[in-house]
């Protein structure tokens, strides 16, 4: 009698839940609902005739059987991922799959990608924008650029970029009447983004203000920047997502006060890619672009001169 294997979607749901120790986080990583993850795990337990997970406060924990099964499923997925990458690499050895967050793709990577294509025409970039952290055992990606604390396990992690927060707005906002000092922000609409907070900047500017509770809020920082460019309010910009908007006059930076972001951008890849020539080319190009940005920023600062900097501090 042939062995009946559990459905792949049930195994994926269980592996994600075991990895995240949370049904909610597992659902987010697979772009499913909490209920769908729960249903798949219960179905898997029914098929196997064994309890795999149990409640633990707001999260879950694996039973002894669940721990053993999770390690085997994880190993099986790793073998599958290796097989898929081997076959796709042979089918298209030029392909380099890059996973990146949507905001970083739109505001940093895509405006520059033509320079990579011109420099390395033998590499076919396959860019996939996704909020979920890439799972190299499951996703068809060779490398990722991720935003966080750099504490992802079982992958190579290299620091790329720091971020700073500071206010920006369109030069057309309020018919050109820009705030001249931080306290003037009280008269303007403050644009917000999920996970980005104004209060640390308020404190750096000497303002004893609470976190704004009103005004537009966006779940994508590229949408936040577009709203600011359209003159719809003042945004707390991330330096890595500013692009050329200040240099081109689309946005104006307000004041010289900035605060460092707690998160950074990292290059992330599985161990099998550590010595990949394609990854080496992509890594070097990223560092060249970052160095070029720093030189442009330093040149802009020299051209602005101390008088312009004093004017922004008023």
Give the class from helix and strand content and strand pairing: alpha/beta
What do we call the CATH homologous superfamily of the largest domain? Periplasmic binding protein-like II
User: What is the CATH T-level topology of the largest domain?
Assistant: D-Maltodextrin-Binding Protein, domain 2
Number of discrete helical segments: 9
Number of strands: 13
CATH class of the largest domain: Alpha Beta
Compressed to H and E, one letter per element, the order equals: HHHEEHEHHEEEEEHEHEEEEH
Distance between the termini: 81 Å
How would you sum up the major sheet? 6 strands, mixed
Structural domain tally: 3
Attribute tags:
314 residues; alpha/beta; D-Maltodextrin-Binding Protein, domain 2; five-stranded mixed β-sheet; disordered C terminus
Write the layout of secondary structure elements.
Blueprint: H1 8-20, H2 23-30, H3 34-48, E1 53-56, E2 59-62, H4 64-91, E3 95-100, H5 102-109, H6 113-119, E4 124-129, E5 143-148, E6 156-161, E7 164-169, E8 190-193, H7 199-204, E9 217-218, H8 221-229, E10 234-238, E11 252-253, E12 259-260, E13 264-269, H9 277-313
Parallel strand pairs: 3-4, 3-5, 8-9, 8-10
Antiparallel strand pairs: 1-2, 5-13, 6-13, 7-10, 7-11, 7-12
Helix pairs in contact: 1-2, 1-3, 1-4, 2-3
Description:
The protein has 3 domains: 8-83, Winged helix-like DNA-binding domain superfamily/Winged helix DNA-binding domain (Arc Repressor Mutant, subunit A), CATH 1.10.10.10; 92-162 and 263-298, D-Maltodextrin-Binding Protein, domain 2 (3-Layer(aba) Sandwich); 164-260, Periplasmic binding protein-like II (D-Maltodextrin-Binding Protein, domain 2), CATH 3.40.190. It is built from 9 helices and 13 strands. The chain has helices spanning 8-20, 23-30, 34-48, 64-91, 102-109, 113-119, 199-204, 221-229, 277-313; strands at residues 53-56, 59-62, 95-100, 124-129, 143-148, 156-161, 164-169, 190-193, 217-218, 234-238, 252-253, 259-260, 264-269.
């Amino acid at each position: 009698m042939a062995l009946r294997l559990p459905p792949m979607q049930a195994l994926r749901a269980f592996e994600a839940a075991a990895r995240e120790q949370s049904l909610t986080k597992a659902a987010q990583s697979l772009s499913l609902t909490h209920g769908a993850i729960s249903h798949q795990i219960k179905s898997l337990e029914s098929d196997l005739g064994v309890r795999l997970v149990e409640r633990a406060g707001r999260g879950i924990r694996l039973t002894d059987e669940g721990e053993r099964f999770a390690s085997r499923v994880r190993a099986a997925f790793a073998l599958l991922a290796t097989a898929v990458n081997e076959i796709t690499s042979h089918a298209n050895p030029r392909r380099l799959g890059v996973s990146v967050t949507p905001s970083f793709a739109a505001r940093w990577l895509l405006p520059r990608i033509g320079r990579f294509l011109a420099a390395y025409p033998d590499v076919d970039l396959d860019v996939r924008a996704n909020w979920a952290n890439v799972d190299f055992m499951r996703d068809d990606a060779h490398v990722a650029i991720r935003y966080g604390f750099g504490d992802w396990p079982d992958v190579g992690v290299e620091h790329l970029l720091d971020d700073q927060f500071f206010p920006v707005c369109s030069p057309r906002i309020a018919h050109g009447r820009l705030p001249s000092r931080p306290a003037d922000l009280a008269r303007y609409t403050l644009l917000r983004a999920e996970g980005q907070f104004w209060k640390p900047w308020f404190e750096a500017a000497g303002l004893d203000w609470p976190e704004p509770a009103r005004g537009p809020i966006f779940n994508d920082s590229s949408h936040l920047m577009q709203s600011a460019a359209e003159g719809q309010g003042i945004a707390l910009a991330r330096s890595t997502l500013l692009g050329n908007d200040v240099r081109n006059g689309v946005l104006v930076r307000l004041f010289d006060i900035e605060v460092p972001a707690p998160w950074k951008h990292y290059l992330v890849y599985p161990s099998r890619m550590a010595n990949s020539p394609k990854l080496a080319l992509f890594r070097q190009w990223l560092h060249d672009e970052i160095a070029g940005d720093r030189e442009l920023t330093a040149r802009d600062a020299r051209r602005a001169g101390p008088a312009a900097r004093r004017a922004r501090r008023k």
